């Protein structure tokens, strides 16, 4: 087994003082068959009491309200996650499967994605897993990683027309294609080993279990990934949501570091 240490820091600065702020933050890794959270520490500035909960997808979240005027909001969380020896995230629950079968939000195909899907040859692919792997390889071949040309609101069809985007766009397009193939698929937000920002990939239902695929890096999700949450598209997995009074223009800076805490144990 492998233990990963993560360090996540988000700083939001406001042009004018914020008089009151309600916040919901999803920044804590999930518990599932592939990973076990050994412990986390969370600090928030300004200091404020917060509560724990889960959203409708089972993602862990903290929420609270800051009533004192402030011009900066800082979240810092760190902890360790044990990656277990399994190649799937969790077993399927039939009562929630349906919402991941149908187009939704940013994962609704337009004419160009439909044309691309129909042009693919799926002969010889006998299982959902084989289709997932083949579609991942083809998307990685036909789509390019280009930062700065898409945004948080870009849909799968819009990104596909550009033939370039970032990990969120790869995940949205891949999920759209899998659902067209009749395979339930969901969006995942998480972290990977290295330094940078959060990452996005997808999970697909194969043989009764949910398996992770990373089309950005053209590989299955292995022991250097930490999962934070999943949903129908990126909107369901937004790390930070809030409602505030005043504040004016704001800027956000996020830094992430994930590293192996120790060597793999036998």
In short:
By secondary structure, this protein is of the alpha+beta class. It has helices at 94-97, 111-119, 128-142, 156-162, 167-180; strands at 2-25, 35-45, 50-54, 60-66, 70-83, 90-91, 144-145, 164-165, 185-192, 194-196, 199-206, 209-214, 219-220, 225-231, 240-246, 250-262.
One letter per element, helices H and strands E, the order comes to EEEEEEHHHEHEHEEEEEEEE
Strand content: over 45%
Helix content: 10-25%
Number of helices: 5
Structural category is alpha+beta
Number of strands: 16
Unreliable residue stretches: none
Mean pLDDT: 93
Terminal Cα span: 7 Å
Query: Radius of gyration in whole Å, from Cα?
Result: 19 Å
What gross morphology would you assign? globular
Instruction: Report the sheet with the most strands, covering strand number, pairing sense and barrel closure.
Output: 8 strands, antiparallel
Task: Supply database-style keywords.
16 strands, 18% helix, alpha+beta, 45% strand, six-stranded antiparallel beta sheet, 266 residues, single chain
What does this 3D model show about the protein?
This protein has 266 residues and is α+β, with helices and mostly antiparallel strands. The chain is 18% helix and 45% strand. The chain contains five helices and 16 strands. Strands 1, 2, 3, 4, 5, 10, 15 and 16 form an eight-stranded antiparallel beta sheet that branches. Strands 6, 9, 11, 12, 13 and 14 form a six-stranded antiparallel beta sheet that branches. Strand 11 and strand 12 form a beta hairpin. Helix 3 packs across helix 5 and helix 4 packs across helix 5. The longest helix is centred in the middle third of the chain and has 15 residues. It is globular, with a radius of gyration of 19 Å. It starts with a strand and ends with a strand.
């Amino acid at each position: 087994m492998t233990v990963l240490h993560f360090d996540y820091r988000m700083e939001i600065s406001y042009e004018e003082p914020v008089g009151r702020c309600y916040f919901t933050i999803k920044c804590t890794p999930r518990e599932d068959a592939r990973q076990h959270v050994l412990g986390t520490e969370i600090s928030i500035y300004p200091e404020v009491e917060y509560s724990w909960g889960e959203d409708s997808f089972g993602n862990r979240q903290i929420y609270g309200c800051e009533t004192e005027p402030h011009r900066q909001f800082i979240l810092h969380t760190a902890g360790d996650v044990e990656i277990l020896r399994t190649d799937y995230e969790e077993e399927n629950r039939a009562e929630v499967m349906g919402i991941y079968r149908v187009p939704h939000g940013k994962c609704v195909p337009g004419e160009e994605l439909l044309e691309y899907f129909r042009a693919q040859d799926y002969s010889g692919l006998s299982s959902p897993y084989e289709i997932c792997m083949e579609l991942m390889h083809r998307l990685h071949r036909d789509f390019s990683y280009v930062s700065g040309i898409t945004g948080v609101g870009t849909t799968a069809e819009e990104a596909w027309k550009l033939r370039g985007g970032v990990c969120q766009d790869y995940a949205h397009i891949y999920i759209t294609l899998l659902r067209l193939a009749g395979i339930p698929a969901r969006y995942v937000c998480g972290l990977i080993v290295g330094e940078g920002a959060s990452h996005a990939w997808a999970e697909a239902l194969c043989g009764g279990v949910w398996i992770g695929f990373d089309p950005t890096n053209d590989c299955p999700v292995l022991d250097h990934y930490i999962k934070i949450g999943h949903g129908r598209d990126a909107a369901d997995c937004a790390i930070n949501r809030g409602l505030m009074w005043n504040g004016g223009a704001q800027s956000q800076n996020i830094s992430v570091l994930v590293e192996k805490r120790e060597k793999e144990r036998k």
